[in-house]
Amino acid sequence: MAVVLRGGITGGFLHQRRDTSSVITRRISSVRAAGGGINPTVAVERATWLPGLDPPPYLDGKLAGDYGFDPLGLGEDPESLRWYVQAELVHSRFAMLGVAGILFTDLLRTTGIRNLPVWYEAGAVKFDFASTKTLIVVQFLLMGFAETKRYVDYVSPGSQAKEGSFFFGIEAALEGLEPGYPGGPLLNPLGLAKDIKNAHDWKLKEIKNGRLAMMAMLGFFVQASVTHTGPIDNLVEHLSNPWHKTIIQTLFTSTS
């Protein structure tokens, strides 16, 4: 996270300021110019995923959550980087919704409030109001429409907020501020980060929580494969015997 330090500083020293996401150290040294004036030279040390590592030049810290992590060099091409940014954003949002849905329904299941299947078996449940084929067709239509609109907005930013781009004048409720951030009362009902160009803090919080959610989903997949139960059951079992019911013992037992 970029931190701006203000004030007249003339001596050579380290000035540090901490925030919730990173520590940025700014070294300031004063060099006298030929005319007797002060010529401050400022060097900024960026927070990176591996301390002391020089980030690649195309990751200059302007993107939300940019800590210079790209060991495979996937973002060297600017157009590819632009696409990967949108892909990560969408996967982060799906992961956050998935984690919240899994934990909520699993809590209802384990407490006996509702008779629900464990999350990885929910897709096999038959519903009375519609057949599985009907649900698949409806999902393909709705998701296909939404994803097509998102892609069109990615190719032509702001185009989906123009009059006539949606049915029934829905586009009036979409501000189309920036690809990936449609805004408006439909998708931003609380009015957070209306000025999307200066909403770096909100973007950073979202992408951090999204990355955490993607790791949580990976954990859910591994848990389901190894323990054949839900995350709440795994948590309860761990809390019942924290020193002997851990991921290490569970994995070792499952492979032995």
UniProtKB/TrEMBL annotation:
Keywords: Chlorophyll, Chloroplast, Chromophore, Membrane, Photosynthesis, Photosystem I, Photosystem II, Plastid, Thylakoid, Transit peptide, Transmembrane, Transmembrane helix
Keyword Chaperone recorded: no
Pfam families per UniProt: Chloroa_b-bind (PF00504)
Recorded GO MF terms: chlorophyll binding; pigment binding; protein homodimerization activity
Chain residues that bind chlorophyll b: R93, L174
Gene Ontology CC, one term: photosystem I antenna complex
InterPro entries according to UniProt: Chloro_AB-bd_pln, Chloroa_b-bind
Highest taxon in the source lineage: Eukaryota
Family the entry assigns: Belongs to the light-harvesting chlorophyll a/b-binding (LHC) protein family.
Protein name: Chlorophyll a-b binding protein, chloroplastic
